[in-house]
Design brief:
Number of domains: 2
Distance between the termini: 53 Å
Strand order of the largest sheet: 1-2-6-3-5-4
Oligomer: single chain
Radius of gyration: 23 Å
CATH class of the largest domain: Alpha Beta
Shape: globular
């Protein structure tokens, strides 16, 4: 077995600003990710999403897309991206860049300085102007609209909104169109100032580099000020909500189903890895009960899978079926869930499911983004685990653990998007 040689080091630059080195010779590039973290809020989510898009597009020094692309090309095809994501109660704005390791370039001394000088302009001198905002607003609106136009994605979004109403689960980290159209330039300016001054910041750098030189560059080009760093991203969603069945109608040929359970298990609980194996048995992989029973044996759908929403303490099942098969599919899904609670499955399925998780974890070692994501998770959970530590947790799960984890789950919602026969909208 190939062992990934990995060295991880974390240091506090200043209160609320952490620097993470993920050192490996596996990649020819160096990845630099800057993650800004603040409380997820329905009104500010879309403003921050819009801000991220604007920052990735232009800055004062490079005030057009062409100038941004030209300077990146001059740095041997360096890249810049920005995105937002939700981690439980937190929304993340991530500015990420990747550049070829200077050791592969002749006369390379200035290359790292160049990328850091560029990132400094992006971070500290954004071009916050009306025309940039309006252009980015159009792009973001189109992205949200595309998601909502897709029945499967809409069912997931609406299902989480209904099940998580009044809690973070019900808030899209991307934001919604209604709030997007109301964002003003002043809102963007305030969001930017708040992000720079108040967000918890993690700078994550992955690749092969000299620690001292890299730290010096970070301190020189990213002079953030101290801020409060005391809040958690993970939580257990409230379990006092009543179970709902909710339908919405649209002129579509195939119906989409989204089912939601609250797990009552936090990502830092001892039973979390039992829940992770249980989810693999239930519906995460093609070896799962849902795939085999609903798709293969009964031919009710093309795709079906379950997913842990770990930072919120929720589990979701999504599938698409013919309208006449809705009830049968729902009952089969519930039956597979109950089978796991009762231990009505072969022990061999535990072995197979564990191996699928392990294979996925090992494969993540080949991805720079996955290594950065693992280190960021360590920061959020205040631990220092490797992929091998997680594999050990998974492998130690037994059948009793699986039954206990599944029995803790409570179904809260079945959302159905189906053929238009009425005009009913639920969960508002």
């Amino acid at each position: 077995m190939c062992i990934l040689l990995l060295e991880v080091k974390t240091m506090k630059i200043i209160e609320g600003v952490n620097l993470h080195f993920i050192k490996t010779k596996k990649f020819k590039d160096i990845g630099i990710h800057i993650r800004f973290r603040n409380q997820l809020d329905e009104k500010s989510a879309v403003t921050r999403s819009l801000l991220a898009l604007m920052m990735s597009d232009r800055c004062k020094k490079y005030d057009s897309k062409k100038k941004m692309n030209d300077i990146l090309d001059q740095m041997y095809g360096a890249s810049l991206q920005a995105q937002t994501a939700g981690y439980g109660s937190s929304q993340i704005i991530e500015i990420r860049s990747k550049i070829i390791n200077p050791c592969y370039i002749e006369k390379n001394e200035q290359l790292l300085k160049s990328i850091f000088a560029f990132l400094q302009e992006v971070l500290f001198n954004p071009l916050i102007e009306d025309y940039v905002m309006e252009e980015s607003r159009g792009i973001l609106k189109a992205k949200i609209d595309r998601m909502l136009d897709d029945p499967a994605q809409y069912a997931v979004s609406k299902g989480l909104k209904i099940a998580g109403k009044g809690d973070y689960l019900g808030i899209s980290a991307l934001g919604n169109v209604e709030n997007l159209m109301e964002v003003t330039l002043d809102d963007i300016k305030k969001a930017y100032t708040s992000m720079i001054e108040n967000d918890v910041i993690d700078i994550l750098i992955c690749g092969d580099f000299d620690d001292e030189k890299m730290e010096k560059l970070v301190r020189e080009y990213m002079p953030f000020q101290k801020r409060n760093a005391l809040f958690s991203s993970y939580y257990k969603i409230s379990n006092d909500k009543q179970e709902e069945v909710c339908k919405e109608y649209r002129n579509i040929n195939q119906s989409s189903i989204m089912m939601v359970w609250f797990t009552n298990i936090s990502i830092v609980d001892d039973d979390y890895y039992a829940l992770r194996v249980a989810n693999a048995i239930f519906g995460q992989y093609s070896t799962s009960l849902l795939f085999q029973e609903v798709r293969e044996k009964n031919s009710l759908c093309y795709s079906i899978f379950s997913n842990l929403i770990s930072y919120d303490g929720a589990l979701g099942v999504t599938t698409g079926v013919d309208p006449e098969s809705i009830e049968k599919a729902i009952q089969l899904i519930k039956k597979q869930f109950q089978r796991i609670c009762e231990g009505d499955f072969e022990d061999s399925l535990i072995t197979v499911s564990k191996q699928m998780i392990v294979n996925s974890l090992k494969a993540s070692n080949d991805s720079m983004n996955s290594l950065i994501a693992l280190q960021y998770q360590n920061e959020l959970l205040q631990r220092n685990w490797t992929t091998e530590d997680i594999i050990e947790k998974v492998m130690n799960v037994n059948k009793d653990d699986i039954l206990r984890a599944m029995k803790s789950c409570e179904q809260k919602l079945t959302f159905i998007l189906t053929k238009e026969v009425a005009h009913e909208v639920c969960g508002e």
